[in-house]
Design brief:
Two copies of one chain form a homodimer.
Chain A lengths: L3 H8 L3 H9 L6 H14 L5 H8 L4 E6 L5 H17 L2 E6 L4 H11 L6 E4 L4 H7 L5 E4 L8 E4 L1 H15 L3 E5 L6 H17 L3 E5 L6 H14 L3 E4 L2 H13 L9 E6 L12 E5 L1 H13 L12 E4 L1 E4 L14
Parallel strand pairs in A: 1-2, 1-3, 3-4, 4-5, 5-11, 6-7, 6-8, 8-9, 9-10
Antiparallel strand pairs in A: 10-12
Helix pairs in contact in A: 1-2, 1-3, 2-3, 5-12, 6-7, 8-9, 10-11
Chain A binds a DNA duplex through helix 2 and helix 4.
DNA sequence: GACGATCTGGCAAACGTTCGCATCGTCCGG
DNA sequence: CCGGACGATGCGAACGTTTGCCAGATCGTC
């Protein structure tokens, strides 16, 4: 194993100089620095992370906790975060909490001591989990708690856009199939829809749920939607939309003929579906990227210091699952 | 921060005893051990990982490198590995190489020094990457190189099962839509299909490809399949099957009426599809689990020391995309 | 009752890095 | 030409843990 000592000897300097030349280049004269870096490269020196963490107290790594890696929604966020972390030259440890609040807290308390910051994605037990990180920097993704920096999608704007789209098609009664009761984003979406309905004035809103944020949730909701006599529906996420469409088909109803469906997230199942799903897209990779940036942003690079809250735009992607209502349904 | 010193003082022993009591409990007398663990719990002692890694040289953590976290196939493996790692009490660092051979090698050389072993999932540049880990223990998942331990699915058996199923339905000409040219598993699947066709005798095999292992690959393959006049098709993975079905629908062909389709992997899109996809399922979480176990298996627990190669079973899941061929197509 | 085997627990030296402090040389203003 | 200031580099002490070695204690056996 090559250590600073070897590099120092090769470059004819002391180990302190080696350390400085590599971690804080501007603190050492250019010729010396070059000699050191050359020697380091030649010897194939790789700093021992453990030693540096031990001494310096920072690890140069971030932690990312997601509820479920198998969920394409979180996978996309993780991917974005990974890419950005790589770009920024920091490590990223991804941990899956398995949708379990307890495991989430545990994961954080295990991760916190060995990282410089934690990205907490759609936390299932914010209070306890935030406690567990004992003051370490944190960024919340897809969640918000006063006083903590967060990265969220502009659900309100998205909902407005969805409702405008449906109204333009001629729909006057729209159902919302909600997600989990304690979900922060479900709350935002409901609020956004209500505000949008108020603003538009001539669209009636029917709120359903809570439902599980999976295909099964869509199955469960389908019959309620039909009974509500709404001609269009917005779902908590794309998986729910998938389940909804499946169940409607079983009941002999056509999408978008009998019912228009708008999903959320643009998980990649959305475009695989028949018909392909009209949905609200957030750039999830950007969420991951932004979260990483919030944590690595140094005061040195002033000016572009990120604001306390990042809100990412939401875009309506119109595909095949929305259409004008059947004439019979029109008033 | 609570250190061994604090615990030692509280328990009235020396720091060596604390260290031993916690890391190698049987080397210290039961009463002492209890006093130490009690003190540790009371003070909320958490060993400093960096210090322990630095001194002991092992990190108690494994690394997992996958080509693409957003691919449900790899996400499932990652999830299984995470779960097992948690159970075994070791850490797991997941890194996404973005399908880039270079990044893969880089990831490994960054990960290797700070882990006790690496799980390499469907590597895109095995030789160079294996080189990069400088002798550190490794397990290959979904790939095989002589001399290295690996966890693979029994593609041959799976292909035999698929072909038997199709023959039983009455198909006599079956196409295979292959994956990437340099893919190890594509090779296994082709070989398995050939062997199965030989063995069954009365099924003709048409090999197509290589194709990209995504939906687009299926699009590209669809017309070739039709032209081949095969009445059934096996695809490299489920995403290809999805693309295939989409394109067939565009051409006015019905699945399974005009063509039966068998996918591979049972990625969760398989059951969302209309018709739901008949596919070959491997328990991907088990792959992740098995890989972790290969690396944490200590010589101490002899007897159940894992064999050099783990081959996981492949199961045929019959859903709606396979049916007997149209009578007209029969000889 | 003594001797050896066995076990328990303490001492102190690492592991490789970072960083406060000291030192030395150099440059500039007076 | 001198004093002060500053920039560059070296010295050495941490960081918190593990572990080889050794001393003392305990027990069984002759």
């Amino acid at each position: 194993m090559v250590t600073v000592h070897d590099v120092a000897r090769a470059a004819g300097v002391s180990i302190s100089t080696v350390s400085r030349a590599l971690t804080d280049p501007q603190r050492v004269a250019a010729p010396t620095r070059d000699r050191v870096t050359a020697a380091a490269r030649e010897l194939g020196y790789r700093p021992n992370r453990a030693a540096s963490v031990l001494r310096a107290g920072r690890s140069g790594a971030l932690g990312l906790v997601v509820p479920d890696l198998a969920n394409p929604y979180f996978a996309a966020i993780a991917k974005g975060a990974q890419a950005q972390a790589r770009e920024r030259g920091v490590g990223l440890f991804v941990v899956d909490s398995d949708e379990d609040p307890e495991l989430e807290t545990e994961a954080v308390s295990g991760l916190a001591p060995q990282t410089d910051g934690i990205i907490l994605c759609s936390p299932r037990a914010v209070e306890r989990t935030v406690e567990a990180l004992e003051g370490r920097p944190v960024v919340l993704v897809n969640h918000h708690v006063d006083g903590l920096p967060s990265v969220v999608a502009d659900h309100e704007a998205g909902m407005l856009r969805a409702l405008e789209h449906l109204r333009a098609l001629g729909h006057a009664k729209v159902a919302y199939v909600g997600g989990p009761a304690r979900s922060w984003s479900d709350g935002r979406r409901r609020a956004g829809l209500r505000a949008a309905a108020d603003r538009l004035g001539d669209v009636e809103l029917v709120e359903l749920g809570p439902h599980r944020p999976q295909v099964a949730g869509g199955h469960a909701a389908a019959d309620l939607v039909v009974a509500s006599r709404a001609t269009a529906v917005v779902t908590f996420n794309d998986l729910v939309a998938v389940g909804l469409v499946e169940r409607l088909r079983v009941r002999g109803l056509d999408v978008p003929g009998d019912l228009s469906v708008v999903g959320c997230d643009d998980a990649y199942v959305a475009e695989l579906l028949a018909p392909p799903l009209t949905t609200l897209r957030t750039d999830l990779r950007d969420s991951g990227r932004a979260a990483v940036d919030r944590l690595v942003a140094r005061p040195g690079k002033d000016g572009d210091a990120p604001r306390d809250d990042v809100t990412l735009p939401v875009e309506l992607v119109v595909r095949g699952s929305t259409a004008p209502p059947r004439p019979a349904d029109r008033p």
